[in-house]
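User: My collaborator sent over this chain with a note saying "see what the structure looks like." That's all I know about it. Can you take a look?
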Amino acid sequence: MGAIPSEIGWLVDELDDIAQRLRTLEAPSGEALSSTVAKLQALVTDIQAQLNAWNAGRWTNDQIDARIYAIVGSILAGNVTIGGQLNVLGNVTMPAARALDLSSATGRVTAWIAGDGRLGHT
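Assistant: Without extra context I'll predict from the sequence alone. Here is the result:
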């Protein structure tokens, strides 16, 4: 294959022009792009609505904390009081507590701690 003869140069230019016009015709029009944008906006709106619906049924951390405190409070209400402060060794000191030696106490009962942490007596 040799060089293009100069007498058909105009034909090459014409073919290039036709190819450019064809690319322009096959490209998405403004209307097609507008339709695509509208479809994408509808999808985003739908996704946002689904997220909002999902979030509406979820509890916030504050709601979860309040529920836990309410349950624990109702279980322990009137049964347990803890006072004092944590010392350096990790023990709770209770200044108003009786002495640990209960050998001379009257009306003693046996106490137990259940596996779930509840304190009870016989």
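A starting point for your reply to your collaborator: Residues 14-77 form one domain.
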